[in-house]
Amino acid sequence: MSSAASSGTRMPAESSSCEDNFIQCYNKGCGQKFDPQTNDTDSCLYHPGPPYFHDAYKIWNCCNKKSTDFGTWLNYPGCTRGKHNGEKPADIVKVAAVKEIRPEKEEDVIVWKGLNKPAERKAIEERKEVALPIEVTAGASAALQRYREQEGNAAAGTELRIGAPCRNNSCDKTYSGPESDSTPCVHHPGRAIFHEGMKYWSCCEKKTSNFNAFLAQAGCEKGKHQWSVNEQVQHVRDDWFSSNGTITINVYCKGAVPDDVRVSSDGQMLRLHIVHGFGKKETDLIYDLWGEVICGESRVVIGERKVSRLMFRFLNVNSEEVRLMNWS
Asked: Which ranges carry the CHORD domain (predicted)?
């Protein structure tokens, strides 16, 4: 009895003594203390990738787990196993200092009326949208030539068809006959600007942080319709992957015509106009880049099988797939 009682009183002291030797793990997503003597290669479950924040979302870059709730995001279990890390990083983020921002509703639009000057206004105005250089591989040129020979060199149809959409920004009208030319085209004549999470048209500056709300903004001027003779494809399949410290987004559209592919960027926004389907279809895409790319180091390469665009270091385009590579 006395021996058992004696051992029972010693156990907490021994446990406390062991815990005194434990070290705090600084791997993201772990938060536990560990014994350096038993630190194995699978002891820690953590997030190896950096966290990043976009609009109302908090996201782990390594596994793409995201949430608008900060507590939920912090409690996501790690996605990779490895050793605990007892070295405190120099740039450790104090999450307690991060303030939550109310997620913007779909209909919310912030309009600047000139009462307060936007931050770094000069820098925004000086940001220019530039066309990225385009290269065409021999295989892509040969594939297009074969198709044209098989079709008897018939050019893509240039006849205006019923249902043809207007190409002006934000105009949702379609061609229903000659009378359509007399209807007003309510559109945005300016260019899209993306700066510090805000999206707006340079012509009217109705600002919003919500991308869908930005795309749904009604035009601010009336003008003449610009009807398209090709089939407009608004939704194309895309995916993404990371490799060698970069992120690649693939947008699939087969049979791109090199002479009618245009890619431009202002460093924070990417705009694409792709004529594909061997000249019978066209797609316009705008990407809000989650970081700044170097336009001078970007290029477009049109290949035989896919259209690829690689951002930040370089940009590729090929005939069946459009690939976007962001920042590392």
From this structure: 25-84, 166-225
Q: Domains of the chain by range and CATH?
A: 18-97 (4.10.1130.20), 126-325 (4.10.1130.20)
205-246 pLDDT, tens digit per residue, is: 788 888 788 888 889 998 888 887 777 777 777 766 656 655
| More confident of the two residues 250 and 50 | 50
- Asked whether 215 and 146 are in contact (CB, 8 A), the reply is no
Single out the residue of 193, 220, 186 nearest to residue 208, CA to CA. Answer: 193
Closest CA to 246 of 308, 290, 311: 311
Separation between Cα atoms, residue 311 and residue 182, nearest integer Å: 41
The closest of 170, 165, 166 to 200, measured between CA atoms, is: 170
**pTM of structure:** 0.46
From the list 69, 47, 45, 74, the residue with the least C-alpha distance to 57 is: 69
Q: CB-based contacts of 304: which residues, under 8 Å, 6+ apart?
A: 137, 139, 140, 142, 143, 318, 319
Among candidate residues 52, 117, 47, the one with its CA nearest the CA of residue 80: 47
Q: What is the secondary structure of 186-241 as a DSSP string?
A: EE--S-EEEETTEEEETTT-EEBS-HHHHHTPPPSEEE---B-SSEE-----EEEE
Q: Quick check: helix, strand or coil at residue 262?
A: strand
